[in-house]
Amino acid sequence: MTGVSIREATADDHAAISDILRVGYAGFEPDTPYLREVLEPSRWADRASATLVADDRGAVVGVVAFALADSSLHEPVVPPMGDASFRFLSVAEPARGRGVGRVLVEACIDRARRAGSRRLAIFSMAFMTDAHRLYERMGFRRRPDLDVRFPGGDGLALTYDLRDGADDVFGVAGPVPDRPPWYGDVFANWADIDPDPDPDPDPDPDPDPGA
Fold first, then answer.
1. Each residue of 71-115: pLDDT tens digit?
2. Rounded to the nearest 10 degrees, what angle do helices 129-138 and 100-114 cross at?
3. Separation between Cα atoms, residue 84 and residue 68, nearest integer Å
4. What does the alpha-carbon distance between residue 145 and residue 39 come to, in Å, rounded to a whole number?
5. Which helix (H) or strand (E) holds 19?
6. Cβ distance 68 to 162 under 8 Å?
7. Residues ≥6 apart with Cβ < 8 Å to 140
8. Segment 117-167, tens digit of pLDDT
9. Contacts of 103 (CB under 8 A, 6+ apart)
């Protein structure tokens, strides 16, 4: 039993949201465009289909941004791996272990179902091991063929089917690459900022010997 309520965030919550995300995303490289975007809710909260917070008697103790496919916050992977997603799931340290993260994810699943979505698809950073255990318990399926590299490391792809036939729309699992692609190479766009450059690009595997 969490003892918290889930509600939509307001601008008054942005400072608390930023503080929670700063701890939750501590594994990212500091001072990158990606992290600056994450830590400034005013830049993305209104672009989500719903920015939800867990409220514990007036204190914000968790956050998640839910996004349908028509939201500019829906991660624009090409080809798409789902028609609903959530991002920035994070729980304040004092509230961890109370089921707050699960309640926030359940709220996203419920909204996706009510919107008629077929598949919820997310990325979770490799260092977010507590979140991985939660997703596994809730029935998410790992999709290593869709993993992506971010400035903070590998983003592990997970999906949750909401209706039968999702594979017919989004495809079945494919081959797993030797190394996940850089997010800037597989996303159609990244909000209103340029993606961070790939710090470790693959060398040309077959250079032109005449060059």
1. 988 987 778 899 999 999 999 999 999 999 999 999 999 999 999
2. 50
3. 4
4. 28
5. helix 14-24
6. no
7. 122, 158, 159, 160
8. 999 999 999 999 999 999 999 999 999 999 999 877 899 999 999 999 999
9. 2, 4, 6, 54, 62
